[in-house]
């Protein structure tokens, strides 16, 4: 068996309850194995029964419905009584059986990745910083970069060293302190100079520490348009600083604070 299929097989028991086979003519539904009743797989639901009802393993639902009625042996257990009571509520038609997704009681004929992801991950409370990272009107690549930065997942040199990679520890922007997420945003003299220019244009007081800056963005009490501009500019500043750091590492090109500020300013003007 292909190794790629193994993770999917491991999820079978998780996904099976979400895929509902809606009975119409019952011709495509396997009585024992498809998810067509509220009890899930009848093979599992009736597993403790002393009898399998004398129904063949690959019998279809339609094969048990003849002349407008169900043909099943008398019920001998409570679970069999439950099943037969349910069957009395179903009458087969000439339409084709069809599948639906049912996630947390919400039914859909279309697969939605977001809904399934939320179901598999279970509900989690919003983190305090979510509105400062994900907001309507932001620049998607900047939102994503900020999210990685908040989680401390960008490959700064301190992280590379922690992975056992032999690299110079110094910051590529100031070349005087060890590079880390907290240093880049905005303890670094180069990055703080850029952030100060941006903050001055925004008429806010720049914070130098990462946690202080993040808390400041979370606690903004400004008009909606001004708040959106501040958050967009903050994320753009972090993004362009990382862009400059990467360019110095891979292309050996260097831009001044003023040059980066002009790029950032033009981008924000175009966005507005």
From TrEMBL:
InterPro entries under this entry? RVT-Znf (IPR026960)
Tell me where on the tree of life, at the top rank, the source sits: Eukaryota
Domain Reverse transcriptase zinc-binding as annotated: residue spans = 111-195
Which Pfam families is this protein grouped with? zf-RVT
The protein in question is named: Reverse transcriptase zinc-binding domain-containing protein
Q: Which organism is it from?
A: Brassica cretica (Mustard)
Upper classification of the source organism reads:
Eukaryota, Viridiplantae, Streptophyta, Embryophyta, Tracheophyta
């Amino acid at each position: 068996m292909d190794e790629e299929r193994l993770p999917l097989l491991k999820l079978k028991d998780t996904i099976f309850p979400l895929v509902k086979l809606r009975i119409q003519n019952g011709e495509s539904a396997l009585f024992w194995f498809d998810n067509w009743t509220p009890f899930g797989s009848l093979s599992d639901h009736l597993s403790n029964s002393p009898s399998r009802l004398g129904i063949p393993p690959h019998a279809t639902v339609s094969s048990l419905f003849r002349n407008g009625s169900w043909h099943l042996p008398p019920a001998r257990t409570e679970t069999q009584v439950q099943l037969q009571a349910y069957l009395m509520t179903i009458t087969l038609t000439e339409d084709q059986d069809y599948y639906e997704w049912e996630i947390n009681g919400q039914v859909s004929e279309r697969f939605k990745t977001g809904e399934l992801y939320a179901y598999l991950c279970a509900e989690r409370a919003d983190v305090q910083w979510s509105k400062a990272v994900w907001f309507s009107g932001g620049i998607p690549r900047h939102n994503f970069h900020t999210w990685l930065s908040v989680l401390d997942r960008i490959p700064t040199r301190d992280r590379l060293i922690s992975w056992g990679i032999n690299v110079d520890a110094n910051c590529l922007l100031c070349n005087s302190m060890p590079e880390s997420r907290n240093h880049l945003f905005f303890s670094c003299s180069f990055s703080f100079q850029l952030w100060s220019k941006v903050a001055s244009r925004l008429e806010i007081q720049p914070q130098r520490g990462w946690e202080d800056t993040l808390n400041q963005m979370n606690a903004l009490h400004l008009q909606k348009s001004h708040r959106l501009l501040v958050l967009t500019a903050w994320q753009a500043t972090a993004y362009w600083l990382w862009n400059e750091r990467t360019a110095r590492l891979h292309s050996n090109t260097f831009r001044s604070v003023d040059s980066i500020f002009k790029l950032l300013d033009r981008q924000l003007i175009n966005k507005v």
